[in-house]
Design goal:
Layout (H helix, E strand, L loop, with lengths): L10 H13 L3 H14 L6 H16 L1 H11 L12
Helix pairs in contact: 2-3, 3-4
Length: 86
């Protein structure tokens, strides 16, 4: 799926920005999001799917990593898993 189109001269800087954004996310949350995408792909959009998606997202938010992510956002600091480059 294409989500962004950039000029060739901007490709390296765009890739670096995308990587920086990805590295800022929690590793456990990334794994859970991948599981969610796999679980809902090709399923009909219905109340059951909405409920399952909401449940999975809520589980991520209340996990230790989710709490650290929310706290770091509110405190305007990098999360504990972030490298200095992210």
């Amino acid at each position: 799926m294409l989500s962004l189109l950039v000029q060739g001269k901007d490709l390296d800087s765009t890739i670096q920005e995308l990587l920086k954004h990805l590295l800022a996310g929690g590793p456990e949350s990334h794994a859970k999001i991948k599981q969610l995408v796999r679980a809902v792909t090709h399923r009909p959009l219905d109340d059951a799917l909405s409920a399952e998606t909401a449940r999975r997202i809520a589980e991520i938010r209340v996990s230790p990593e989710g709490k650290e992510g929310i706290a770091s956002f509110l405190e305007k600091r990098k999360a504990s898993w972030c490298s200095p480059e992210s």
